[in-house]
Amino acid sequence: EGKLIIFSVLSAKAIRDYIYTFVSRTNTCGELRSAHVGQKVTLYGWVQYQRQGLFLVLRDFHGLTQVIIPQDEVSGHSHVKELLSNAPVESVVRVTGTVSPRPLGQQNPKMPTGDIEVKAETAEILNSCKKLPFEIKDFIKKSEALRMQYRYLDLRSSRLQANLRLRSGVVMRMREYLCNLHGEGLLAGAKEFLVPSREAGKFYSLPQSPQQFKQLLMIGGLDRYFQVARCYRDEGSRPDRQPEFTQIDIEMSFVDQAGIQRLIEGLLQHSWPEDRGSIVTPFPSMTYEEALAEYGTDKPDTRFGMKIVDISDVLRGSNIHFVQNALSYPHGSIRAICIPQGMRYLTNKDLESLKESAKSQFNQCSALGALRLLSADLLEAAGLTLRDPTAFHFLWVVDFPLFLPKAENPTELESAHHPFTAPHPSDASLLYSDPTKVRSQHYDLVLNGNEVGGGSIRIHSAEQQRFVLEKVLKEDSEVLSHLIEALEFGAPPHGGIALGKLLFLLNS
Fold first, then answer.
1. Based on CB atoms within 10 Å of each CB, which residue in 102, 283, 297, 357 is the most buried?
2. Segments of 293-345 assigned E as strands
3. CA torsion 424→425→426→432, rounded to 10°?
4. Which of 491, 497, 488 is closest to 457 using CA atoms?
5. Residues in domain Aminoacyl-transfer RNA synthetases class-II family profile (predicted)?
6. Which of 48, 54, 70, 72 is closest to 122 using CA atoms?
7. DSSP class of residue 41?
């Protein structure tokens, strides 16, 4: 512990010098600048490129450095020339030499190390590379199957390494924000581990952060908890779903919905990558009902308009039979979306595509929302830009229903979020008289039409939790008797949130 405290106050240079006492290189391939001219350095890396025995580009995780291959016949240089000139691309080499300024006019402003080069004096091939299954270049197209087969080679690409650096940097700043800036009583969660069974070849995995265990931590008086967890889910191969993702999970006592939202806004603002621009807080908020009415989805993409509008009053006097039939129902309405410049950009084939989509989703509440997104796809495919790919539009969606009818049996109810979600304070009495009308304290964070986080304030009353399970959901409360009993022992008001898809969207 004492060593860690001493280490934390060392200067950046001292830390760097301390780290390099454990490795035989003097510098990385990404750090040499004009200030290093004249210094003798030792670099390790992969041969990214070699040109006619004159120079090569050496690469490691930190960047690129140009190495000049000696052409004179000074003792030992002919051996270095032959060795470096014949080293296959992607071979691992060690090079020792002197940092020199590049000749006037030959600087490369696109490379951070573009003002210097290293004149090689000694070199060694540490591992020669055989013929590669594909070139390690971002612009080279390779099949997904081939990339997965040689994932360790694919990871050498600058794009994937940039994704890893971005992910690491964001998570690091999130930990800094939650531990150092809001760290009083904040507890980091434990890692998941596998448990062997007595049956050969089989094991089971303990859940990383089940809802009830987080609540038990709060009941235990730990006040605050967070965990950066690797999660696995059996998802299909849809573009917005991944079987594996990283999630930051937070639970807090004595907090309300507004407090959690402020925490998350501050967390994202603190950890947001600088090269992605700034984000403005507080994020706008929209109710679940507003989202469905205007966008046809509970995760609206607000980067473009084309909102759903109610045109019932306009058509109420028409003699169109199906219109009048729709309006005759108790809550019947006619809704539409206006497609800007649709006549100019959409072809007959596009209109047929929209028609088929409408047919396939007939009688679904989300049909217009899907048509809105499909219309945007078709317009952008035709050359009209609607959604800025560099823009990040965050949105809180709130006031979800606490319960929804079951798809397989609409006369029964199920939890819209999970059965531990607390009802909206204004609707608490409705829980006992008309649960279908109860709003919840469930909130989702939406980014560019994707749900990137979700959470809720939890039920902290044992009586209320038992009523929800037994009377509303018709579940056997004995399964959760341990949680209900714990709620009887002075459970504090508490709530939480989990952010899941954010890193995926930043990398995509």
1. 297
2. 308-310, 335-337
3. 80
4. 497
5. 224-508
6. 70
7. E
3-state SS, residue 98: strand
Place of tokens 């050498």: 156
Helix H or strand E encompassing 174: helix 158-176
What's the rounded Cα separation, in Å, for the pair 24 and 43? 9
Q: Which residues contact 11 (CB under 8 A, 6 or more apart)?
A: none
| Contact indicator for 96, 122 with CB cutoff of 8 Å | yes
Tell me the Ramachandran region of residue 146: left when phi exceeds 0, alpha when psi lies from -120 to 50, beta otherwise. alpha
Classify strands 394-398 and 285-287 as parallel, antiparallel or unpaired. parallel
**Residues near 141 by beta carbon (within 8 Å), at least 6 away in sequence:** none
Q: Which domains does the chain have, with CATH numbers?
A: 23-127 (2.40.50.140), 182-286+388-508 (3.30.930.10), 304-386 (no CATH)
Whole-angstrom distance, CA of residue 30 vs CA of residue 32: 6
- The three-point CA angle 424-425-426 to 5° equals 90
The residue assigned the tokens 């199906």 is 322
Alpha-carbon dihedral angle through residues 465, 468, 469, 471, given to the nearest 10 degrees: 130
Residues 6+ apart with CB under 8 A from 335: 308, 309, 310, 311, 312, 368
Residues in a beta bridge with 195 = 204
Rg from Cα positions in the chain: 30
The whole-angstrom separation of Cα 445 and Cα 441 is 13
Beta strands in 236-378 (DSSP E): 244-253, 285-287, 308-310, 335-337
Report yes or no: 80 and 123 within 8 Å, Cβ to Cβ: yes
The span from the first CA to the last CA of the chain, in angstroms, equals 40
